[in-house]
Amino acid sequence: MSTAGFMVSTVDDRKSVVVLSGAGMSAESGLKTFRDSDGLWEGHKVEDVATPEAWQRNPEAVLRFYNERRRQLMRAEPNDGHLALARLEEGYEVSVITQNVDDLHERAGSSSVLHLHGELDVARSTVDDRLLYRLHGKEIRLGDVCDKGSQLRPHVVWFGESVPAMEVAEPIVRGADVLMVVGTSLLVYPAASLIDFAESAARKVWISPKESADVLPLGFEKVLKTAAIGIPDLVSDLLAEEKLD
């Protein structure tokens, strides 16, 4: 998994805020990055567009699906939640670990972003996963090949594939002074297990507009707001606290 765009700060005297973001974060920018309540993703069965088996059966259909998602992404803009997280870097070491495949965190200005499930605007070789190509919004078509002559595929972790970026994410969460979970139900594994690596002394905050749909993990404060409202409010509080220290 690419960790392009992820950078560990070397500033030692600032507190660390680690953000785990999920589909709800991007939904407020108009993107659907995971399956809906009916089990479909943008009207498609997940097993038809987001599995290695689907790629083997009908690569053209899979490419068409992700090309459309990429076009949709190019029209989307970061929301106030994304922008607030970038602003938080004024006073904290901020690491964003996202389940989302869009680049809205980066476009908002966050400097350290780790994509657990890949990046929509990146293509990958089908024979060497180290060969990655930034697409800049362009389509991937059948016949587009890597430097080794193999077909390119979306750089997205499909169901049934491993999540190698977890090995990078775990120590980052361990180092958090503040752990912020936003836009995720914590039902998708292995990403959901990351909260277990936070130190007991870390402040833990879960931002979600849903009162009853989610089960609040032990030790978490719950902010009953959407990402675009809850994150700016929390960021303002954190920056005010930092100035008082």
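(ticket continues) Second input and output from the same batch:
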Amino acid sequence: MTSDIRFESRQGRWVIAAAALGSGIAFLDGSVVNTALPNIKREFEGGLTGQQWIVTGYLLTLGSLLVVGGSLGDLFGRRRVFVLGLLGFAVTSLLCGLAPNLGVLIAARIAQGVSAALLVPGSLAMLSAVFHPDDRSRAIGAWSGLSTISTALGPFLGGWLIDAVSWRWVFLINPFLAGAAVWMAQKFVPETRGETPDTEIDRTHIDIPGALSLSIGLAGVVYALIEGPGSDWSILSLSAAAIGVVSLTAFAAVEARSSSPMVPLSLFRSRRFAGTNAATFLIWGAIGAVFFLLTIHLQNDLGYSALESGAATLPVTALMALFAARSGALAQKTGPRRQMIAGPLVVGAGFAMMTRINPGARYLTEVLPAVLLFGLGLVVVVAPLTSTVLAAVPDRYSGVGSAINNAVARVASLLAIAVLPALAGIATGGSESIARGFSQAMWICAALAVLGSVICAFTITDDAM
């Protein structure tokens, strides 16, 4: 297995560019769509429920199949699966951009998530496998920063495209970006596999029962959480919830008994791995809900245009671009613990400040300070969190380890977007305003971030990298 590429080398920079652009397209599509939701709603009709499905349909397949994608990369080649994911993402993005109605758009988004599940884990696993151990954390820090930038840049890019052309171009631009990433991967990224034999787990088979039970379980639970409150918990919603719970329970049983589990439960014997993933679930659940609700709130309740609502979060992009790689280097030098405790607290403080973003609030005094604090917290925590979770697994599991962590983050966002509106008292019908429950939702997100910090305090040590 190649593991000697240096961070400062020309090839190293191209490898990071390929990985970051590939995963960035998938992450960007998770946030850029948020800006387009009000415009899609006006063209296709439907209330908040339809908007939720546009986002959660993508996150559903992405989150439930990420670990399968990581396993496929470990088995058949990380670059190969990464490139296949990019090609599939380009095709499904085209289908999204040409969708004639809401149902087709949601179906295409679900298919788009399948392709993203192939390329996202491969992007990080490639870095872990090909870079020299002394440069691995710096490379992951740069990848984390660039990938997070793409998430934060999404609303701005989406807003510009929507105002200048059409919401459809937030999807139609993807094939061009995917093509560039394919070229870079084929030219500069060496192929790697999980070549080290393992006596406990058979890596020559893909865990189809595990993938099916997880997908069905998440689909049932998410359907119930989105549709249940608006239908007074109809028989269909309750049945979906029951099927979801049974399937998720079956998933745990399948993984415990499988010779080739999608999620090797032995990895969770590591306190660092388990703790980092628990913190990821809480922190990224909160972040996903905030990006979803803030963009809608700014447009519907504060009168922002699509471009203005996207530009509102640009300071996050700037902070990540300037300081993410330095944050990763600092964590490698001093250890990740302090950053992983402090970062979520700062993120939570930013969410708490967002409770002041009410109709009539001014950008410079209410919106910008909250966004800056949120961005600063992301700078502090993202790179060490990613490096720590990879350092907690053997090299042969770098693909599945990164996939598990990414899956945890996407499933957390999926569940938060599905359940938070109801918890915060936000109507899911035809009403455009979400002002009534926005502040309550931000307090919940702040609490989740703080709880993530507490978990890091008890599970992360400075020798985790």
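Agent notes: Residues 11 and 194 are 22 Å apart (CA to CA). Confidence is low (pLDDT under 50) at residues 196-202. Closing as not reproducible unless the customer responds.
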